[in-house]
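name: query_chain
kind: protein
chains: 1
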Amino acid sequence: MNNIIGHEKQKEFLIKVFLNKKIPHAFLFVGEDMVGKKTLAFAFAKLILCDNNACQACKTCTDIDKRISPDLYFVSDENNNIEIDKIRAVREFLRLKSYSNKKKIAIIDNAHLMGNDAQNSILKLLEEPPENSILILITSFKEMILETIKSRVQEINFNKVSRKEIEEYLISKGTDKREAEEISIFSGGKVGQAIEFLNDVSKREFFSKTIKYLEQIKDQEFDKRFEYVKEIYEDKEVVFEVLDIFERFFRKLMFLKIFNKDSGSFKDYSLLEIKNIIEEIQKTKYYFNNTNTNKKLLLENLMINI
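structure:
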């Protein structure tokens, strides 16, 4: 786990329960997207299943990276939903004998996208967990997880990683200091985002372009704002990237306001107005990701409220 950036307390806890042979049968990893929850879940699986302390080189570790390990089952959503059939498959998998005579591990990403039937199926699994099984639920919206599930799992919370840690990681990978500093600022504490920025210059250019758009948005008529929505609303990944940049932009404005610094074209906005915009962005993210609400109308409504 030493190659994972940040999350020292979380790593320390997981290593401790492993060494003490007191691993809970179920976890809930909670935190924003791209901060490293899934990366740490797979690293923990390596620690448990590898004979050489997650060596990163053996067949077990490489199979886990490829997600073809016979003792690891990974579930992700399809079209913003995790069907009950996938959860039934998880239950059947965890009942099987471990290929390595260690543990059977299931990781469910975006667990908040399980419907009620799927969550109730998980609940049955938690009430009678198979021997030598470990379930890891990963979510950025824990409020959508049933309380009865949350009461039966070990919750681990993940925060954003510091700019300094991200910058030092990038420099260790051969990035020059100026570029590392720029990427660490752009990534906003999200390690996954930093790695994407490092590997894809176009993503950094997109970030800069979106910030430039936001700096001018206050003086735009609604029809111009709606044109922007029309350009992006059909591409889910682009929308989430845009909303993430929007949120970071207004969070920065909020801090500028608090410390009486220049907030550019938004200098006339009160702290409360900026706070309300951030909440509107978060609400838009939530509904866009978790409901079938008209995506275009959602984004147009946000544009009206900026």
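note: The domain at 8-157 is CATH 3.40.50.300 (Rossmann fold).
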